[in-house]
Amino acid sequence: SDLPASGRAPGPAVPLALAPIRSVADWRDAILAKLVYALGRDQRTASDRDWFEALALALRDRVVAHALDSDDLTRVAGHKRVYYLSLEFLVGRLLVDTLTNLDMTGLTRAALGELGADFERVRAAEPDAALGNGGLGRLAACFMESAASLAIPTCGYGIRYENGLFRQEIRNGVQVELPEDWLAAGNPWEIRRPERDCDIGFGGHVEQVGDDDGATRCVWHPAELVRAVAHDTPVIGWRARHANRLRLWSARAVAPLRLDAFNAGDYLGAVADDVRARSVSRVLYPSDTTPAGQELRLRQEYFFSAASLHDILRRHLAEGYDLSRLPDMAAIQLNDTHPAIAIAEMMRLLVDRHGTAWNEAWRITCGCFSYTNHTLLPEALETWPVALMERLLPRHMQIIYRLNADHLEAARAKGAASDSLQASLSMIDETQGRRVRMGTLAFVGSHRVNGVSALHTGLMRETVFHDLHVLHPDRITNVTNGITFRRWLFEANPRLTGLLVDVLGDAVLDDPSVLAGLRGLAGDPGLRARLIACRRANKVALSNLVGEQLGIGLDPDALFDVHVKRLHEYKRQLLNILEAVSLWQAIRARPAAGWVPRVKIFAGKAAASYAQARLIIRLINDVASVINNDPVTSDLLKVVFLPNFNVSLAEIIIPAADLSEQISTAGMEASGTGNMKFALNGALTIGTLDGANIEIRDHVGADNIFIFGLTAAEVAVRRLDGWHPECSIVASPALAGAIEAIGRGTFSPGEDTRFAPIVDELRRTDRFLVTADFDSYAEAQRRVAALWRDRDAWWRAAVLNTAGMGPFSSDRAIGEYAEKIWHVTGLER
Ligand code: CBF
């Protein structure tokens, strides 16, 4: 991309075109060549990991060729690019994604077979790239795939964490966190790009060098530099239409070894700078419970934002454009507030480094940036202490003060002059010490701000961003999230995909709206029988995994009731396990009452410092060990907690689910994307009217989803009125019985108080309205059981779920971003 913009350089972008793969033998030889010549391994002794690496390298050659070509076309066409800045990319494995999009899965199975390797084992040898926590990071990964599939020139920018999200083990019911060393054996997908490295400053002082346009031009002299080291992973789109790249930065010292210290015998001191610098890209979400942890988080955010902007401006200038044209050529999306500091950095680069006048710099900045908000939870709306910012990023703090003054002045001119309005609009929160509100900075510096579901976007306008919205009524827009069907249907559920292709034709692979054609077939007995067979096979596969990992035998004909996602109180895994306890008690009381056999499956990680969420994991595991060993109920109810939930595990669990639990306190789940993955695969949802559940209901039909509980508006009223959980508990014998059992140590023999923090929270404050929704949830679960007994009706509803999910493709979501926010189209070939 550093070639002159004036035209294509002589010759093709990929001068040494790879020999086309025409046969299994060609492909077998290409893989074998990598095994021998790139890895130096012997075919006779190669391990599954060796074969994975050889295959990935052979595939990477093909993807890189596409990426170079796509980049060249973009440059020559003078096409606008999208830059997606995200602290998280929850990629998972890339092998099957790449094979699917290149249409090489069958060929590869056969080629590996000829080489004496087993495709499934080779596939399992790839570690998950767990560079994210949950929905936000997985959304970023889906968006990268969809942008490539729609041929929208896009570069994702993030951090190459050495240790991604921790590996979870459950020991005696307790979550134990271990480092996830996904890079231990190297990463064959990535390509090191030393020519793109750059140095990022921290601390130091600011020198004033001139005055322009009322804005002081300055030189920042950082006290410390950290080198940002570039690694590219090519991302290929569906049917290999286009390839983009994900550029991840790792950190190291500019001078990694002090030889004088080393030679003096101070081996630790000699590498101390490097250790400190590397801590920036060492772990995803270092705990921010200490000041050091908070500082590290801010360092991470600035580090990757600054390196990415440096790269964006470099490319723009190298292609021969003037900086004034940046908004025509670059759309920069802030995935949540984590990269919001990029707005101040852009101003610094334009004003201090490139001499752009302040107002023009602001026009350019607002023209480029847009911001997605992913949550309204107050603890997730980042603020940084002013003192920390002044110490770590002194020039940025000056810029923020100036931007804030301009912003408050403009607000005053529009009538928002009262002290309370000015305080609420300010980028500086003065209520708990002085802190910089990153959400406000992101809002003010962006031309568009979007929420991720219709409900969430409405709540943004009404609550957290209300005053900013009044000031800029056209800025907030909605783009409901989506998921890539390539991974979450074609790859995760090949059985269902094969069936859909048989019934709807190949078009369903390219156009998600074709799924709607299933509606007319919802009552078809032939289709139903085939769907039941698919689901059963998926359930057998999951049961085998549960058997291997936990030694628990599951009945694949039982109803698989699945709750998998991050552990958070608002997601209300507690509501589910309380209902499981109460169901167990009811079965014990009347074992012959014709119960529907049910397996409750949980998985998810709790943040290491989140004590209550960790305790909920313990409760689920302790309840499981009692219930699973009860001979009275064991054929009717099982509870399973699968450790170490990640993308690959989700790909096995989701296609095996009959029921999808989406039961957050209404108003608290911005969108959810797990809800979409389950419904697409034909699971029925039990859920609150929260996030995208509402839109899912509208598309699959209210009769085909089990809605319960308070609405967001009702939750808000309860909270305003003062909320007394004791009343709900007294009114519900089932709930009271379940809480009682937990409180008296039924699931923690010899330690009655183990779950006291949970019981106390439920009885005293119940911030997430678990008790308020319990009866309604239990009643919805009875509706679930009733429908399950009516097999025809259940499978009709399942078909209608898959049929209604076309609009939840991330291709649709990316199309909306492209049109409404980025003003960019796909590249024509
Ligand atoms: O928008 C993607 C997802 O982001 C979250 O996971 C987040 O981290 N804020 C939200 O909690 C989800 O509701 C949302 O789907």
Automatic annotation (TrEMBL):
Keywords from the UniProt entry: Allosteric enzyme, Carbohydrate metabolism, Cytoplasm, Glycosyltransferase, Pyridoxal phosphate, Transferase
UniProt modified residues of type N6-(pyridoxal phosphate)lysine: 677
Stored CDD domains: GT35_Glycogen_Phosphorylase
Cofactor requirement: pyridoxal 5'-phosphate
Presence of the UniProt keyword Disulfide bond in the record: no
Places the protein is found: Cytoplasm
Chemical reaction(s) catalysed: [(1->4)-alpha-D-glucosyl](n) + phosphate = [(1->4)-alpha-D-glucosyl](n-1) + alpha-D-glucose 1-phosphate
Enzyme class: transferase
PANTHER family assigned to the protein according to its UniProt record, in alphabetical order: GLYCOGEN PHOSPHORYLASE, GLYCOGEN PHOSPHORYLASE, LIVER FORM
Protein family membership: Belongs to the glycogen phosphorylase family.
Protein name as annotated: Alpha-1,4 glucan phosphorylase
UniProt organism field: Acidiphilium cryptum (strain JF-5)
Taxon lineage: Bacteria, Pseudomonadati, Pseudomonadota, Alphaproteobacteria, Acetobacterales
